[in-house]
UniProtKB/TrEMBL annotation:
Family: Belongs to the UPF0065 (bug) family.
Leader peptide range in chain numbering: 1-34
Keyword Kinase: no
Lineage summary: Bacteria, Pseudomonadati, Pseudomonadota, Gammaproteobacteria, Oceanospirillales
Claim: Signal is one of the keywords in the record: yes
Entries under Gene3D superfamilies matching the protein: Bordetella uptake gene, domain 1 (3.40.190.150), Periplasmic binding protein-like II (3.40.190.10)
Superkingdom as given in the UniProt entry: Bacteria
Full protein name: Uncharacterized protein UPF0065
Pfam assignment, any one: TctC
Sorted UniProt keywords: Signal
Classification via InterPro entries: BUG (IPR005064), Bug_dom1 (IPR042100), TAT_signal (IPR006311)
Amino acid sequence: MTITTKRNSFLQIGGTMAVAFALGSATFASSAQAEESSWSPSQNVSMVVPFKPGGGSDTFGRAATSGIKEVREDVEISVNNIVGGSGAIGYSTLLQRDGNPHYLLASETGAAIILPLMNDVPYSWDKLTPIAEAAEDHTMIIVANDSPHESISDLVDAAKQGQVNIAISGKGSPASLAFQLIEQNQDVTFNRVVFESGSANNAALLGGDVAAAGANPGEAIELIKADKVRALTIFKEERFDQGPLAEVPTIAEAGIDVDVTPTLQFRGILASPGLSEAQKTYWENAVKSWSETEGYKTYIENNYLTPKVRTGEEFAAFLEKQHNTIAPLLTETD
């Protein structure tokens, strides 16, 4: 699958070209506005969340729904939790709405990328319509506060000398992929202990059953604030610039040079297949407008996410890259 992005280059030469450039820009802006204004929702919109209320996907879906309502006051949009099959039922629902722009999906890496790679499901992300990415969640490696491991290097050294048990939430989870990247880079092996959830991972860590666990910031932040666990590293290109995670070194700063793409948990919106350009543009612009509000900023800060807005072809290119970096990792663990 190849995605081609066309870019127009303009050369400004003297006053004449400056005027031409300004006129061209104005024309392009008018065209974009006209394209969006040529379509708007004609009925109630459903934001499908493919998981139960209370999790990260549900939190995102509800934040995005509220945000779209704020920036598109004439749109009636509501959350619809359609659960089952680890997210597959909700995703498949949109396949059955081909050409219907009144269905959106609160999407993330696990169900959009990893599940179709590991299971025989009727959908894949490229059978749907990528609208926009709105945020990224990151994977941390955490240890109990009284752990003898002060750095990721300490944990790696321990694994070279003997068995080190680590907690993950299943094969293919961002945490499992994060540990796998460390194993490949450092030529070590961790003993994986699989639990059903991040909270179960944390309980095993605090109980001394494992030496380390993978967790996203939202899963671990309260324990970090309470001085019960510490983060050795985070799979993030740059550190958080403030708050309780600002001192956590990135995986690169910890001396392990890996591509963090497979470990990212994107939060974004997919739509039914077969949408027109005007319909796609309408929803893309709605997400962009939401990303400029205080409500969006609050969602990002409260959940310790990184703001990352990609729309249309740029979002599709990211999804393809993530698919292509995760697929070989899953194959190696078969």
